[in-house]
Design brief:
Order of helices and strands: HHHHHHHHHEHHEEHEHE
Largest sheet: 5 strands, mixed
Helix content: 55-70%
Structural class: alpha+beta
Number of helices: 13
Number of domains: 2
Low-confidence stretches: none
Strand content: 5-15%
Number of strands: 5
Strand order of the largest sheet: 2-3-1-4-5
Distance between the termini: 31 Å
Shape: elongated
Radius of gyration: 28 Å
Oligomer: single chain
Length: 327
Amino acid sequence: MINQLQEKYQLSLLWLLSAVAIVGIFPFAVIRYFEGNLTAAIIDISLVLGILVLVAYAHQSRNIRALSAILAVFINIGVVAIAQANGIDSFLWVYPVFSSTFILVRPTEALGINVVAGVALASSSDIFTTVSVESYVVTILMLSLSTFVYASHSEKQFRLLDALNTIDSLTGAFNRRAMSADIKAALSNAERNGTQPLLAILDLDYFKAVNDKYGHAIGDEVLKNFAAITTSNIRQYDRLYRFGGEEFVLLIPQIHDQHHTFINNLRSSIKQALKTPDGEEITVSLGVAPWTPGTTEHSWLKRADEALYKAKAEGRDRAIFSSACKT
């Protein structure tokens, strides 16, 4: 799941970059046009229009990651071209462009793009009759490395924020915020591509008795163990969410005819591995609902919850499938 906060942040940076392009580059295009430097004016106008088009398309398509990478390459090509066309008068644009690259793409990618652009400038420009090669190399290297360190730290902060935003702090399972986003994505994918996702609500049987007998600290350990056991017995792309208390939701994005076997094997594995401090088994009841055309997030959870209610009414330690589920 793409982090929505980071997506909004990245998009706001793209719009800021487009504003800077208009304010910072466009006046130079006008000046160079009236000075008769048509080549430099055309490059400047192309940069402004290219940035605006790419940012607008990123806003519309929401394919921000790919468009940001294209934009990073585009502005680096542009600064190399303008430095070649206009010489020392445009060379200082290298520094803001190289810094902006770290805003657009991941730090290692930005560093690679900077290296390629820096070498291209060094090998094809005549500015070194005015600027020493040593000064160029040292200042570009210091800029790129310091910005790399800052961008790497920011990326780590976003990963931490993403974890805090989507992970249940007690069990390590995903939380309800992540669940809602993933269910919407699974429903959209099912409608569009005909996949067969499955949703299950899992509830630990007689969990209150565990808390009453052993205390809430042990109850918390049981919940952690349950999440760990369940995660180890599902596939990499299946996702477990803490729904509330001792209830969890399992989203299986794609499954075919083996869903009964898969769910019952999971229930058996949990029963065998999940124990109280005295070694007693802790069982789980499951209500399972398949995707059907027209399913919404609310109706999907409702059908799974109704199946769970039946599982508990029939004695617990069992999985009940919604009547819409084929055997």
